[in-house]
Sequence to fold (207 residues):
Amino acid sequence: MSHCTSFTMTFQDKRTLFRAMRSRGFQPENRVWVDYQSQFKKRLNIGGTIIGKLLTGMKDGVHVFFVESEEGMIPHFESDILSPEELEKQAQVLLTSIREGYLHYSVEAVTEWITNAGGTVSVSEEKSGAITSFVLTIGQSEKKVSISMDSQGKMEEKVEGVLGRSCVELTELMEQKLCGQNQVERVWTHEYDTTVEDQQIQILRLS
Fold:
Protein backbone atom coordinates (compact mmCIF):
# COMPACT_ATOMS: atom_id res chain seq x y z
CA MET A 1 0.00 0.00 0.00
CA SER A 2 1.33 3.45 -0.95
CA HIS A 3 -0.75 5.45 1.48
CA CYS A 4 -3.92 5.47 3.53
CA THR A 5 -5.98 8.65 3.82
CA SER A 6 -8.83 9.47 6.17
CA PHE A 7 -11.19 12.45 6.19
CA THR A 8 -14.84 13.39 6.61
CA MET A 9 -16.77 14.09 3.43
CA THR A 10 -17.63 17.70 2.65
CA PHE A 11 -19.42 18.78 -0.51
CA GLN A 12 -16.95 20.74 -2.64
CA ASP A 13 -18.39 20.59 -6.16
CA LYS A 14 -21.87 21.98 -6.84
CA ARG A 15 -22.33 20.18 -10.18
CA THR A 16 -21.53 16.82 -8.61
CA LEU A 17 -23.85 17.61 -5.71
CA PHE A 18 -26.65 18.58 -8.11
CA ARG A 19 -26.30 15.25 -9.94
CA ALA A 20 -26.27 13.34 -6.65
CA MET A 21 -29.44 15.06 -5.44
CA ARG A 22 -31.24 14.50 -8.74
CA SER A 23 -30.34 10.80 -8.77
CA ARG A 24 -31.73 10.44 -5.22
CA GLY A 25 -35.06 12.12 -5.98
CA PHE A 26 -34.51 15.52 -4.35
CA GLN A 27 -35.58 17.57 -7.41
CA PRO A 28 -32.69 20.03 -7.01
CA GLU A 29 -32.79 23.63 -8.17
CA ASN A 30 -30.89 26.83 -7.61
CA ARG A 31 -33.19 29.43 -6.08
CA VAL A 32 -33.26 32.36 -3.69
CA TRP A 33 -33.66 31.09 -0.13
CA VAL A 34 -35.29 33.17 2.62
CA ASP A 35 -34.71 32.45 6.31
CA TYR A 36 -37.55 33.10 8.79
CA GLN A 37 -37.42 33.23 12.59
CA SER A 38 -40.50 31.04 12.92
CA GLN A 39 -42.87 28.90 10.86
CA PHE A 40 -45.63 31.42 11.65
CA LYS A 41 -43.68 34.26 10.01
CA LYS A 42 -42.81 31.98 7.13
CA ARG A 43 -46.48 31.19 6.47
CA LEU A 44 -47.28 34.90 6.52
CA ASN A 45 -44.18 35.69 4.48
CA ILE A 46 -43.02 38.44 6.85
CA GLY A 47 -39.70 39.26 8.48
CA GLY A 48 -37.65 36.97 6.25
CA THR A 49 -33.94 37.41 5.60
CA ILE A 50 -32.63 36.57 2.14
CA ILE A 51 -29.65 34.23 2.45
CA GLY A 52 -28.89 34.15 -1.28
CA LYS A 53 -29.28 31.90 -4.29
CA LEU A 54 -28.68 28.40 -2.98
CA LEU A 55 -28.83 24.82 -4.20
CA THR A 56 -32.02 23.42 -2.72
CA GLY A 57 -34.12 20.29 -2.89
CA MET A 58 -37.01 18.49 -1.25
CA LYS A 59 -37.83 14.89 -0.42
CA ASP A 60 -40.28 13.19 1.96
CA GLY A 61 -41.57 16.53 3.23
CA VAL A 62 -38.09 17.82 4.11
CA HIS A 63 -36.38 20.79 2.49
CA VAL A 64 -32.61 20.77 2.19
CA PHE A 65 -30.49 23.76 1.23
CA PHE A 66 -26.72 24.18 1.03
CA VAL A 67 -24.88 27.25 2.31
CA GLU A 68 -21.44 27.79 0.79
CA SER A 69 -18.54 28.27 3.21
CA GLU A 70 -14.76 27.92 3.27
CA GLU A 71 -15.22 24.27 4.32
CA GLY A 72 -17.58 23.50 1.43
CA MET A 73 -21.34 23.45 0.94
CA ILE A 74 -22.99 22.88 4.32
CA PRO A 75 -26.42 21.14 4.32
CA HIS A 76 -29.35 22.43 6.35
CA PHE A 77 -32.71 20.72 6.73
CA GLU A 78 -36.14 22.05 7.63
CA SER A 79 -39.72 20.79 7.59
CA ASP A 80 -43.16 22.25 8.14
CA ILE A 81 -44.66 18.92 9.18
CA LEU A 82 -42.05 17.07 11.27
CA SER A 83 -41.21 17.62 14.92
CA PRO A 84 -37.59 18.63 15.71
CA GLU A 85 -36.83 15.06 16.83
CA GLU A 86 -38.36 13.52 13.71
CA LEU A 87 -36.60 16.05 11.50
CA GLU A 88 -33.22 15.20 13.04
CA LYS A 89 -33.69 11.50 12.33
CA GLN A 90 -35.01 12.04 8.82
CA ALA A 91 -32.24 14.53 8.02
CA GLN A 92 -29.60 11.93 8.84
CA VAL A 93 -31.23 9.40 6.51
CA LEU A 94 -31.48 11.93 3.69
CA LEU A 95 -27.92 13.20 4.21
CA THR A 96 -26.58 9.65 4.00
CA SER A 97 -28.44 9.18 0.71
CA ILE A 98 -26.98 12.40 -0.71
CA ARG A 99 -23.48 11.43 0.42
CA GLU A 100 -23.74 8.05 -1.28
CA GLY A 101 -24.84 9.67 -4.52
CA TYR A 102 -22.10 12.28 -4.27
CA LEU A 103 -19.45 9.62 -3.73
CA HIS A 104 -20.77 7.65 -6.73
CA TYR A 105 -20.42 10.64 -9.08
CA SER A 106 -17.03 11.60 -7.64
CA VAL A 107 -15.75 8.11 -8.44
CA GLU A 108 -17.33 8.38 -11.89
CA ALA A 109 -15.43 11.64 -12.51
CA VAL A 110 -12.09 9.98 -11.70
CA THR A 111 -12.98 7.03 -13.93
CA GLU A 112 -13.76 9.40 -16.82
CA TRP A 113 -10.47 11.24 -16.27
CA ILE A 114 -8.46 8.02 -16.49
CA THR A 115 -10.40 6.83 -19.55
CA ASN A 116 -10.09 10.17 -21.37
CA ALA A 117 -6.33 10.10 -20.73
CA GLY A 118 -6.10 6.77 -22.56
CA GLY A 119 -6.04 4.50 -19.53
CA THR A 120 -8.33 1.65 -18.62
CA VAL A 121 -10.11 1.28 -15.31
CA SER A 122 -12.71 -1.04 -13.84
CA VAL A 123 -14.90 -0.11 -10.88
CA SER A 124 -16.60 -2.32 -8.33
CA GLU A 125 -19.10 -1.09 -5.74
CA GLU A 126 -20.14 -2.78 -2.51
CA LYS A 127 -22.65 -1.94 0.21
CA SER A 128 -22.14 -3.73 3.52
CA GLY A 129 -24.34 -2.48 6.34
CA ALA A 130 -23.58 1.20 6.85
CA ILE A 131 -20.38 1.06 4.74
CA THR A 132 -20.33 1.99 1.05
CA SER A 133 -17.13 1.05 -0.82
CA PHE A 134 -15.67 1.51 -4.30
CA VAL A 135 -12.54 -0.11 -5.74
CA LEU A 136 -10.90 1.26 -8.89
CA THR A 137 -8.47 -1.11 -10.62
CA ILE A 138 -6.26 0.66 -13.15
CA GLY A 139 -5.11 -1.22 -16.25
CA GLN A 140 -4.30 -4.91 -15.99
CA SER A 141 -1.95 -4.43 -13.04
CA GLU A 142 -2.36 -4.36 -9.28
CA LYS A 143 -2.78 -0.59 -9.14
CA LYS A 144 -5.88 -0.01 -7.03
CA VAL A 145 -7.66 2.82 -5.28
CA SER A 146 -10.24 1.81 -2.69
CA ILE A 147 -12.48 4.29 -0.92
CA SER A 148 -15.07 3.58 1.75
CA MET A 149 -17.57 5.72 3.64
CA ASP A 150 -19.70 5.11 6.72
CA SER A 151 -23.11 6.60 7.57
CA GLN A 152 -21.48 9.60 9.27
CA GLY A 153 -19.51 10.55 6.15
CA LYS A 154 -16.17 9.36 7.55
CA MET A 155 -14.03 8.15 4.70
CA GLU A 156 -10.94 6.02 4.23
CA GLU A 157 -8.97 5.93 1.02
CA LYS A 158 -6.20 3.43 0.19
CA VAL A 159 -3.83 3.30 -2.76
CA GLU A 160 -2.05 0.04 -3.59
CA GLY A 161 0.60 -0.84 -6.15
CA VAL A 162 1.55 2.75 -7.10
CA LEU A 163 5.14 3.85 -6.61
CA GLY A 164 6.37 7.19 -5.33
CA ARG A 165 4.42 10.44 -5.18
CA SER A 166 2.29 9.41 -8.15
CA CYS A 167 -0.09 7.86 -5.62
CA VAL A 168 -1.04 11.36 -4.44
CA GLU A 169 -1.68 12.56 -7.99
CA LEU A 170 -3.96 9.59 -8.53
CA THR A 171 -6.26 10.57 -5.66
CA GLU A 172 -6.03 14.35 -5.99
CA LEU A 173 -9.10 14.78 -8.19
CA MET A 174 -11.20 12.62 -5.87
CA GLU A 175 -10.11 14.56 -2.80
CA GLN A 176 -10.84 17.91 -4.46
CA LYS A 177 -14.49 16.85 -4.65
CA LEU A 178 -14.74 15.08 -1.30
CA CYS A 179 -12.93 17.29 1.21
CA GLY A 180 -11.51 20.75 1.78
CA GLN A 181 -7.90 21.74 2.05
CA ASN A 182 -6.01 20.64 5.16
CA GLN A 183 -8.77 18.16 6.08
CA VAL A 184 -6.85 15.09 4.94
CA GLU A 185 -4.83 12.84 7.24
CA ARG A 186 -2.38 10.52 5.45
CA VAL A 187 -0.29 7.58 6.58
CA TRP A 188 2.59 6.79 4.21
CA THR A 189 4.16 3.40 3.45
CA HIS A 190 7.45 2.32 1.94
CA GLU A 191 6.00 2.40 -1.60
CA TYR A 192 5.60 6.17 -1.30
CA ASP A 193 9.31 6.58 -0.52
CA THR A 194 10.33 4.78 -3.72
CA THR A 195 12.40 7.14 -5.87
CA VAL A 196 11.11 5.72 -9.17
CA GLU A 197 7.78 7.31 -10.02
CA ASP A 198 4.95 5.23 -11.41
CA GLN A 199 5.15 5.79 -15.19
CA GLN A 200 1.57 4.82 -15.92
CA ILE A 201 0.21 7.39 -13.48
CA GLN A 202 2.65 10.01 -14.75
CA ILE A 203 1.29 9.49 -18.28
CA LEU A 204 -2.27 9.97 -17.02
CA ARG A 205 -1.27 13.17 -15.25
CA LEU A 206 0.34 14.63 -18.38
CA SER A 207 -2.58 13.75 -20.64
User: Anything to note?
Assistant: DSSP finds five helices and ten strands in the chain. The CA atoms of residues 27 and 206 lie 38 Å apart. The first strand starts at residue 3 and ends at 8. Residues 195-199, 201-207 have pLDDT under 50 and may be disordered.
